[in-house]
Amino acid sequence: MVATRNIVLSLLCISVVAPIVLYTDRLSTFKYPSAEQEFIGDVTALAVSAADSGHLNLLPQEISAVLKEPIGVVYTEESSNRKNLPPATNEEGRTKGENPIKLVTDGIKQGNQSSYLEKADITGDTVNGEDAIDVDDNDGRLAKSFHTSDQASETMATKQEQESTKSSSKVEKKGPILSETNKHNDETPCDARVRQLKDQLIQAKVFLSLQAVKNNPHLTRELRLRVKEVSRTLGDASKDSDLPRNVNERMKAMEQSLMKGRQIQNDCASAVKKLRAMLHSTEEQLRVHKKQALFLTQLTAKTLPKGLHCLPLRLTTEYYNLNTSQQQFPNQEKLEDPRLYHYAIFSDNILATAVVVNSTIAHAKDASKHVFHIVTDRLNYAAMRMWFLANPPGKATIQVENIEDFTWLNSSYSPVLKQLGSPSMIDYYFKSHRATSDSNLKFRNPKYLSILNHLRFYLPEIFPKLNKVLFLDDDIVVQKDLTGLWSTDLKGNVNGAVETCGESFHRFDRYLNFSNPLIRKNFDPHACGWAYGMNVFDLVEWKRQNITEVYHNWQKLNHDRQLWKLGTLPPGLITFWKRTFPLNRSWHVLGLGYNPNVNQKDIERAAVIHYNGNMKPWLEISIPKFRGYWAKYVDYDLVYLRECNINP
Hints:
alpha/beta, three-stranded mixed β-sheet
């Protein structure tokens, strides 16, 4: 009896639980993509008449006055193929908050629905089912046939497909645009805010100069305050990292003030006119400043730093405190030995001469075979001797001579010496009213008044027993052993030099006056020039070709300075015309005194580097990156340099 009761109860439980389990399992396997199609197919099969359409309106509807587009939805090809269904789905594939009945009635009213879809297509908005039915509800009528509904549904599907394609293309295009934007942001210049601040200052100054803004005292005071703040913030900053932390606040405040100015002064013509006037004024100021900078540079090059003025005075005092025996140099028997390597240096700059000697000895293979012949003026003679007595260059031989002791060098023998002492020459250099008549100020340097500068044309007279001499300027630095120059075959030429025709301004027409028939007849204006500073001279050929007399003849012809300006290079080009042997460029690299772009590799390979130009390495205006090549041969710990406050 009990067993029968248990069986009956079990069957009852199964009959109750089984439908629930089966129904729940079916719901769990319900997939919207296919289920919706079946549901819609069943609904569309019903014969709905116009009279029955009113019942649809009885269904609760969500009221929406504004059509909204789902944000951040990317339509795929799969979703665009589904007719009458919204493309946006959630993670489980279900449509978000959509009513299937509304989707059926979507677009049944052809006139209003079609016009709305066209409007949505033009404006680029995506229309979902709810938004479409809301529009139809406002109209209060529905379509009367399912044929029209199918057409509207197909139309909407086509529109959505087009929208999906457009959206996809927009998304695809957005990728490179964003990457380009990010790339642009990564390449933002380090001085972007500095430039923006400068632009704001210019705009503020323009507004302050306009009459409409001047008539508004409150805005004028505000702009002036902003200009002071931004100028103080900007300071000497050259990049954004140099700006203070409150820079953004200052920029925003200035921008707000500028906006007020734009509201008051909206006439672009006045602003453009003012900007043109400012541009013209700036260009004029730039021209004046360039002229002043050129003049000051020339003035600085002509002057002697205080330390270099102190040094000869200090050395002269020490020299005359020595005994006569202590004032003599050793190895004087080597001075006229033609088998040794002889150098000629003509200078009144003690420190510069010391660098030339020190750098040469530092790279010499055998310093005992090198002889330096130094000629200076009367004022620096004792100081020059004292320097090399106190700082002897190793085993090398030193000779220091006074140009005043060359009694043969007088105005009756040398035309240039006669010209340098003439009243017209002194007037040319020292009369201020004529100082502005010559546009090229470098030719007005008083160094050309010194006979030391012209002594290079009298080498056979100075060294009558020598065969070859290497002439060195005092603004050079030696970086390699130079003994190979004495074995160089000059092929019958007198002068061995490095040519400088790599640039147009180093040709003959830049130094000589080719409007003069005498110059035009004898020389080629496009001939390649060469450099003084490191020249090897064959004194035997010099005497044989009587070069000194050639120099004298041309100097006499140039008594009125009509053939060339003053200096030693123009007469050198003329005197050694067709008598110069071109040396390899690696022997002599020029430009370190005026050109900051000299190739670094050329400098490192060069045997001699030359600081020709106004920016000498011992001046404050020297090019910083080139100064080290010169300064490393100066011992700044020497007592004389410390006493005269000469520092690196």
